[in-house]
């Protein structure tokens, strides 16, 4: 797999686990405002995104001509009451989906990794691009988690 870094893909779980390490339940669920995600909600969103890319990859491999689905990330997070669960369960789910997808990705030939589908914007996107995009997406949310952690530490210290 010349241009797909499977290690970077799999490492997103370790990075996420490290980003949330040491948070107690109050810190993980703290929100700076009702419409802004908590750390736990960000982690839940990453599980949702894992489901979506799982479907997109499989849809491309199946040769489906339909546009790859988009999803309303805020509605998904709020609709499933993400802040009411347990962060450890979310991390376990994220890890399991990554591992399962990595098994599939590891079986794909270079030609299969180059297969494309049409995303919700009407752009052609390859399986390779989906995988690289997922890793970048996680990186962006790790920064978001750090910002929320810092804000929570200040707010909870004052409370």
Notes on the protein architecture:
It comes from Paenibacillus cookii. InterPro entries: DinB-like, DinB/YfiT-like. This is DinB-like domain-containing protein. The structure is a single chain. The chain has about 160 residues and is mainly α. The chain has a single domain (about 5-159), classed as Up-down Bundle (Four Helix Bundle (Hemerythrin (Met), subunit A)), CATH 1.20.120.450. It is built from 7 helices and 2 strands. Strands 1-2 form a two-stranded antiparallel sheet. A hairpin with a 5-residue loop joins strand 1 and strand 2.
Second CATH tier, the architecture: Up-down Bundle
* CATH top-level class: Mainly Alpha
Main β-sheet: number of strands, strand sense, barrel status?
Answer: 2 strands, antiparallel
- CATH homologous superfamily identity: dinb family like domain
User: What value does the average pLDDT take?
Assistant: 94
**Number of self-contained structural domains:** 1
Rg from alpha-carbon coordinates:
17 Å
Large-scale geometry: elongated
Helical percentage:
55-70%
The fold-level CATH name is Four Helix Bundle (Hemerythrin (Met), subunit A)
The helix count comes to 7
Structural class by secondary-structure content: mainly alpha
Question: Count the strands?
Answer: 2
Low-confidence stretches: none
**Strand-residue proportion:** under 5%
Organism: Paenibacillus cookii
Pfam families: DinB_2
InterPro entries: DinB-like (IPR024775), DinB/YfiT-like (IPR034660)
Protein name: DinB-like domain-containing protein
